[in-house]
Write a structure and sequence with these properties.
Helices cover about 65% and strands about 0% of the residues. It is mainly α. It folds into two domains: about 45 residues, Orthogonal Bundle (Arc Repressor Mutant, subunit A), CATH 1.10.10.60; about 140 residues, Orthogonal Bundle (Tetracycline Repressor, domain 2), CATH 1.10.357. Helix 1 packs across helix 4, helix 5 packs antiparallel against helix 9 and helix 7 crosses helix 8.
Length: about 200
């Protein structure tokens, strides 16, 4: 959706409120007030607050997956470059929402209906498959040390997500500098030293 679309702007306001006040506390009236309309206008676009939460989560997951989907089956390039691309893409997205929202999985999934929760979890699982596949590819290419793909993928994703809690450009590092640091940090831990063989 275009950010000029009323529905998209309502989602932006809701995302900020869910992060600031908590999903359970924020009301449809709060969202309407933040958007600058009557609550009845919100219902022209969303039937319930749960639907808004679902759309917020689905939109964020789609933003996360879109730039890395091709990595799931891209076996021809160096896994080091693929993992670096994935880390950089995830970090940029993670910090671009810092002021307006947050990935709400840990607290919000319980508020979704089973069918909607299943859809969001499936998207999260897709991300996990991509990062684990890249790590596996690196091991098969002899680029990465043999590691637990699942544990390594979770640790990388957790490290990126955690940056929301402390990052601020006034702390002396830019998003791009941080992306380079994390990418180098991960690759230095995973990569087989040059000349060491497999």
């Amino acid at each position: 959706m275009s950010r000029n679309d009323p529905k998209a702007r309502m989602l932006d306001k809701a995302r900020a409120l869910f992060w600031k006040k908590g999903y359970g506390v924020a009301t449809m009236r709060d969202i309407a007030r933040a958007y600058g309309c009557k609550p009845s206008n919100i219902y022209n676009y969303f039937s319930t607050k749960e639907e808004i939460l679902f759309e917020v989560l689905r939109e964020e997951m789609e933003h996360l997956l879109r730039p890395i989907r091709h990595l799931e089956h891209e076996s021809g390039s160096d896994a080091r470059d693929q993992l670096s691309q994935l880390i950089r893409s995830h970090l940029r997205l993670n910090l671009s929402y810092r002021r307006s929202g947050k990935l709400l999985f840990d607290v919000a999934l319980d508020h979704l209906s089973p069918s909607r929760r299943k859809e969001i979890v499936a998207m999260r699982d897709h991300y996990d498959r991509i990062i684990r596949g890249v790590i596996r590819r690196g091991i098969e290419q002899g680029r990465f040390r043999p590691v637990d793909e699942k544990l390594t993928g979770m640790m990388i994703a957790s490290m990126i997500t955690r940056t929301r809690m402390w990052f601020h450009p006034k702390k002396g590092v830019s998003v791009e500098e941080l992306a380079e640091f994390i990418s180098d940090f991960v690759l230095n831990g995973l990569c087989v030293p040059t000349g060491s063989g497999r």
